[in-house]
Amino acid sequence: MESEKKSKHGKIFKWLDERYNLTGLIEFAKKKSVPKFRETIWYYFGGIALLLFVVQVISGILLLMYYKGTEDLAFESVHFITTKVSFGWLIRSVHSWSANLMVLSVFIHMFSVYFLKGFRKPRELTWYTGIGLLAISMAFGFSGYLLPWNELAFFATKVGTDIVGEVPLVGEPLLKLLRGGEDVTGATLSRFFGFHVAIFPGIFIILLTLHLLMIQRQGIAEPEDYAKLPPNEKKTIPFFPNFALRELLIWLIVINILAILAVFFPWELGTKADAFASAPVGIKPEWYFLFMFQVFKFLPGEILFLPGEFVGLLLFGIGGLLWAFVPFWDRRTPEGKRNKILTYFGIFVIIFILVFTILGFIME
Amino acid sequence: MKGNNSDTSIHNTKSKRRDFLNIVLSGGFIAWLGALLYPVFKYLEPPVVEEVKVSNVKIGAVEDMEKDSGKIIRFGNKPVIVIRKQNGEYIAFGGVCTHLDCIVQYRKDYGQIYCACHNGRYDLNGRVASGPPPAPLTKYGVTIKNDEVIVFQEAS
Amino acid sequence: MKKKIKYFPASALLLIFICGMVRAQSNDECYKCHLDLGDAPSKIYKTDIHFIKGISCAGCHGGDFGSDDMDEAMNKEKGYIGVPARNNRYQVCVNCHNDENKMKRYGSSLASDQYEKFKMSVHYKPSYNNQGPIADCITCHSVHDIKRTNDPLSKVYPTQIISLCGSCHSSAEFMQRYNPALPVDQVQKYRTSVHGKLNAKGDPNAAECVSCHGSHEIQPVKDSRSLVYATNIPSVCANCHSDTKLMSKYKIPTDQYDKFVSSVHGVALLEKGDLSAPSCNDCHGNHGAIPPGFESISKVCGSCHVLNMELFEQSPHKIAFDKNNHPECESCHGNHNIIHSTDEMIGTQESSVCVNCHKVGDDDKGYMVAGEMKRLIDSLRIQDDETKKILDQAVQKGMDVSDATFSLQDVRQVLIQSRTTIHSFDLDMFKENIDDGFNIVSKAKVTGEEAIDEFYFRRIGLGISTIIVTLLVIGLYIKLRKIEKKA
Predict the structure, then answer these.
(1) pTM check: above 0.80
(2) Edge-to-edge strands, sheet with B120-122
(3) Are A337 and A325 in contact (CB under 8 A)?
(4) Looking at the domain that runs over A35-275, which CATH code has it been given?
(5) Considering only alpha carbons, which residue of chain A is nearest residue C475?
């Protein structure tokens, strides 16, 4: 019986191998390995982010079956999905929760790569594509948030795009481009819908493919300290089947967590957006924008002779660029030296984000 | 031999356990896949939207329609074709062609109900006259009350 | 001897009186002269109360009444004003009648607030052709022959005042100049009323124009200061109709006002200020006031409660009530003391009005119908409450049942309508309406129950999935350990 099974598999395998040289791929896959040391656990977050992106694509496509992207139907269609469609509530809550968890895991993945110096030569481009993926993820979140066309989303979008408008020179035209006009209207919704289901997925897939291909080509990065060990002390786990099975285990748990969240913490729909209603008290953006929002709230109207918002944007801009281009200005790590500034900068950024996010939550 | 036997027996139990584990895992995966795909397929099934029960529809005054003309009206959420014959009588049928669901029209020049999609034709009793339609059109009742034309669904 | 003594004080008094009159006469040179001239006002002046009080012509016209020389007497410097102009002649009356002290000097107990009241009234407004107030003191009280108001010959005595007011208010031509919308048939209507008939017979106690509209302080009806403004009417009518002594003469009960004040209409009108609620005149009429007859009660109530009236008039009750002289709406709802109708009024229980006539028995169809209607209303209310509870439960569990909750609003509508369809006393018509309510309620109930089931279904489904995942995870973990042990 076993031999029969093998021959069945064997036949299909042979057919494909003759055409696509699967043996070569299998040899390559067998060689893939992951460094084994105390920080291996962080290596899972990239995969979790990838899993959550796939969940988003699938749940997003399902939502597309019933969602209607116009001002007068958007809210009603989401209401329809969550109340009348079988398991619509599940698909919608999973999509919303998974979005947040995806952004979270992308952040964790990025910070772990940062501290483990995974961005150093020869992996600079992997880091840059990763930054691009982070930016698109947050853009996904921002554009998707508006689609149910509810009160909170409407005002959050208004405030968010207002801040974009503060950027000097390009701010105004950029604001009009984003909003599809002067104000947030049905035109904005159409635009955001287009961004969310076509443009961003397109860009994201391209960046993701590059990101993953580069990793496959170069192999999994070794952390700084580990890399300095003599070869015979470097412990590894084979990617197939060990690490892969572990990842599968974690992925199963993550999917189940999504289900638990959807059932016990269903995502709210709120009330339909009304352009003439006053902004609700305590309006704030989603948590991954909260720290920036909170900083802006603290900025005084004017600093020296410049408008407060401009200074805020400038500082964030500079900070963001520093972060994004860390492979460029980190000279010490390629030389094999410990870069304490890097570590402190990283810790500072984490604490900064944490503090202002918490403040954003507890303050009205 | 004794030693061999014990070896094979241990080997057997080990392989049995391995097989059991594999069965559990495969079974588990299929169950998991099922639990995943079941909601997805149920989701894709269109939900039942409550139909507003319409029993009759007023379509206008008797003289509103010209003799030997037809029009499509909305009966609840279904199209119905209403024809005023040359002798002034009103008749009505379901407006959906029984071939591939296109909406039919009245053709004065044929004196028949015509479907533009594949040239199907029905006579003024709703029966198929020519073309691909496999079944006749559903008959609707028409009555005149207080000079108004009312279309209603006949008892089936 | 005794007789003579009795008559003595009386005749003495008479003598003194005549002397006084003669004295007055002898003092008033204006009067003497003008009387000789055959002047019309002088001829009638002796009937005037002012003459009796000893007031000379100069009292109003000014001048020196002691002098018989025309130039001296009618001297402007001595205050002579001649015949005052139409537009301010009332000032002459006001000079004394607005002064409390002057009134006391002449021994009068009359009030002195007439002018103040008159200034605020509608009659004070400028007349057509700007000839002063529309109506002034003289218009109503006349001049030179003014009588006491309790003198039957006074123009403003109850039996006389009707024609006085009517002289303007019944003239279409006259009233058109001021308010074409005002009716001019008040007197005509009044004469058909109970008040008017008694008044025509000479009864000064029956209500006439002044009793309701006031005298000096008359306001337009729509002005809230008017005595006949909707919210003021009940107390105005009650002035007489709650007076037991007064009404005992006519054998009319005096509990109407008290009953009305506590009734639905009274509370609405007097406490809530709802002007669409009826006042006394809306049911009884105002100028043609008469209690509605047995057969016309439903039409009177029906002028507002139209649907109830229409249904009632088509029902078997109309014929039955009229035949037995039961006042239609009143038999069940009362007249002055109409209270808020409750569901307890219908049915076969003790509190219902139906059992006043209907009794248990196969031949009393009404009894069965009453019981059935009550049962259906109660049933719908109970089901509505139950369904609301179920929907609340669903909402508590976080499920969305907004559509079903919205549809329940219609049930309230159905219940309100059913309380109207009762008046047809036709079980089929009643059921036709209330069945809609049952449909809505049962659908909403099903939706609520389905929502609650869905809540549990989700948790059970999650539980099953979690079990599967847990098994898989454990299995994978074991597999992993095995693989790694091998290596």
Answers:
(1) no
(2) B105-107, B112-115, B120-122, B128-130
(3) no
(4) 1.20.810.10
(5) A249
